[in-house]
Amino acid sequence: MSERDLQRIEVLSKVIGSRMTMVSAAHVLGLSERQVRRLLQRMRTGGAASIRHKAIGQTSNNRLGNVLAYIKEQQDKPKVKSNSEKNGYVKRARGPGRRKEFMSDPAVIARREKALLRQRAAE
Prior knowledge:
This protein has helices spanning 3-16, 22-29, 33-46, 65-76, 83-86, 106-122. By secondary structure, it is an all-alpha fold. It has a domain at 3-51. α1 packs antiparallel against α2 (22-29) and α2 (22-29) packs across α3. The longest helix is centred in the C-terminal third of the chain and has 17 residues, at 106-122.
């Protein structure tokens, strides 16, 4: 147990033995009278071991190990396909607006070459 717990047990034992009042015990421990009353009730029912903080020995809520493992597991899972993807729809990589990759389109290249040939023939 910590020093704080040992001090609490000592002071609460004095209150139980009528050697100290609840008000003075609250002042010594830096607690309210109501909190001292609650600690006394816990000590009477569970003994001195019940004064120890209940969260000691428990894992912290700020742990990251399990969370990071869960995220990695979710990233490795295959993504769920929507109905349209199951039916063969493939989303195009184009955004809204004018088409920007038209210069590499074979049909456009053929039309440009044909137009250039006509222009040279006209000259």
